[in-house]
Amino acid sequence: MNTPAGDGLHLRWQWLILLVSVGFVVWLLAPVLMPFVAAALFAYLADPIVDRLERWMSRGLAVSLVFLVVALVVIVILLLLVPFTERQIGAFLGQLPVWLDWFQTRATPWLETQFGISPDVLDTQRILAALQAHWKEAGGVAAGVLAKVSKSGMTVVGWVLNLVMVPVVAFYLLRDWDVLVERIHALIPRSIEPVVARLARESDDVLGAFLRGQLSVMLVLGAFYGIGLWLVGVSVGPLIGMIAGLISFVPYLGAITGVVMGVVAALVQYQDWAHVLLVLGVFAVGQTLEGYVLVPKLVGDKIGLHPVAVIFAVLAGGELFGFLGVLLALPAASVVMVVLRYVYERYTSSELYTTGSAPGIVVVAKGTQQAAVAEAAASAAPAPGPVPPPAGAPPA
């Protein structure tokens, strides 16, 4: 017969094998999980809206209304944003040879003079010659690439299936979201149900704050940087602002990328330091706005991820699961933080932390070490008994 301790150890091994098996299956299926993950994220974000709409209509009608509004918003954004982005990319590509020429004729000699960097290290002549030789053929190259991609029937079919599957899967997930949550809750072993329910609630708060808040921060920063650089006079400023906003979920990466691209664009376009200072001012105001207004108001401090932890999570997710890992890195890291807080709470309230059978280690100053040893020896010596009378003395 197994002892209770043996049963507990056996149960822990079962959980470990289950978690490892699930992780291995996810790793194997990562290439085909992208549409399902995107659909699940959309359903998770839209579920609170559908829950509010259920007060006045059925669940199915509420989901249909949400999808109709989202479809209209996406269509309007595509009609407005795609042509604008195309013009910005065209302007950027048109200025790219000028950027490289400026880097070769001005920046490289300055770097060589100030820091002793050899021009061979920054060889832009070959890049510029290649761009100048094939610039007119860019359209032909793009057409050739598109033709090669179109010949791969499976690639095109895969893209189309992903585009179709995301809204379809999202619709059914959103319609049955509450039912799925209840069924998952019913499968949890009753012995750990209170702990799992608590962690699930805390994870839901953290994920909601991160996904909704961080997306809002990215959109606001992208719009602010784009409009600010456009007002400064940088011709490709809106494109730089959108890039900086979209990658701002990694701390400081969006601002650093935007500053580098904005400074180079200002130097190439105006060749003065006044516009460079204006570009730096735009990003300084944007970082202040992000740190003191946007993140505290929209995200809050529930996530508690250190910038180094964020960078590590993104890199590790991308290395393990590709783009799917990048997409899920920060939400997964947020849930891991919730679990680690619970583990820390259990540890600090356990006997391992509060008590112990091993003797404590006392550190004393060097000057008082001999006194401490003497005091310890005196306290350890037995108490002295009565002094016997000398020989021949009368008894007391």
From TrEMBL:
Pfam families: AI-2E_transport. One of its GO terms (biological process) is transmembrane transport. It is found in: Membrane. The chain crosses the membrane at residues 15-46, 58-82, 156-174, 215-233, 239-268, 275-295, 307-340. It is a multi-pass membrane protein. The keyword Membrane applies. It comes from the Bacteria. Keywords: Membrane, Transmembrane, Transmembrane helix. GO terms for cellular component: membrane. Belongs to the autoinducer-2 exporter (AI-2E) (TC 2.A.86) family. This is Putative PurR-regulated permease PerM.
